[in-house]
Amino acid sequence: MTGTENFQVIPVAEVNATIVDIIKFDLQTDDPDLVERYNEQMQTDLFPDAVILVVTKEELNNITSLKNIIDDVNNVLNWMKRESYDTEIPVICVLNKIDEYFDNQLPSSDTDVKKVEEYTRKALELVNKYLIIPSTKCIPVSTTKNYGINQLRLNINAVSPLNAQIIDKNLDYISQYRQSIANKIIAAFSTASAAVSLLPIADIIIINFFQEWMYRMLACFSVDPNRTPNSFKAVNRIHQGVSIAIRTGSLFIADIFQLTIVGYSIGSGICVFAGAMATTSLGWSCYFYFID
Description:
Blueprint: H1 32-42, E1 51-55, H2 57-60, H3 63-85, E2 91-95, H4 110-128, E3 138-140, H5 149-159, H6 161-196, H7 202-218, H8 229-235, H9 237-257, H10 261-291
Parallel strand pairs: 1-2, 2-3
């Protein structure tokens, strides 16, 4: 809402935000007209990403005016927390009309940039003396010169509780999808390992070949470029050695069982199980090594 006592919707690309300008409005939480207007506005904005506190050089130099503005902001924050969300809405401080510090010009030199940093730091320290929910950011902008608008949009996205929920859900979906693909890869190579596990000696060479290609395929999930199939094999030598020993031992045990007709089926089952489980175990170890 503005000094005209009407809400003004300011669209910001890709942001779910309601920007409330309460300068000179003398907001009171028991004002029934305000409550009605606020409810009407919030019907389409179920959860604001942030509360934007806009201040200027003039207001920062007038402590009485600044405190009145921030008192209004605090009333909004308390009302929103109590009546609508029961949670703290992030506050972003905006130092508007930054060009006024540079004779109505945009900061252009390294010296100007350092001055901007100093101005925003002081502005943030000053408003946080009075805000009930401290702001963690102060963004310098100039709406007349289109300066800092993109930075403001990015910071709204960064603090947005809504975006955080979306990101969490997307990451959870990606994680589930990634694990599903990994499961299919590991299952395919485990089945292939089981199929060749009855070949004496040759199965060890062939299964090692299968496992090598499995490592390479699972490497596509690696979150660290330094984690490669070779690095996995280097840190898992014992696991791989045990896998080979189990498969070799299963061949000798299978040979003993295969001396009888009944034992042939048992021995074959042992070889198939050992070949499949060895590849499966190494496959999941490799997968979690890459995504950890």
